[in-house]
Amino acid sequence: MKLYQKVALVGASALAMTSPAFAVIDVTAATTAITTDGTAAITAVGGAIIGLAGVALVFKWAKGAIFG
């Protein structure tokens, strides 16, 4: 590639990067919603898993107490 082609390519790239398509987009509301809802969902699932583990331990203990 010749020098003038490289210069033209760099100029075209710089022009494309200043396009409104590359403007900054405010995503704070979306990330806040994902963080809040995601944390609530993960907390609920974690609580359910811990609850099921507790139930499994109670059944294991009861089975051991009965069938020794």
Given as residue ranges, the uncertain stretches (5+ residues, pLDDT < 50) are none
Structural class: mainly alpha
Instruction: Please provide the ordered H/E string of secondary-structure elements.
Output: HH
Strand content: under 5%
**Structural shape:** elongated
Percentage of residues assigned to helices: over 70%
Please outline what is shown here.
By secondary structure, the protein is an all-alpha fold. The protein has two helices and no strands.
What report would you give on this structure?
By secondary structure, the protein is mainly α. It has 2 helices and no strands. The longest helix is centred in the last third of the chain and has 40 residues, at 28-67. It is elongated, with a radius of gyration of 29 Å. It starts with a helix and ends with a helix.
Highlighted features:
single chain; 68 residues; elongated
Itemize the secondary structure elements and their pairings:
Layout: H1 3-17, H2 28-67
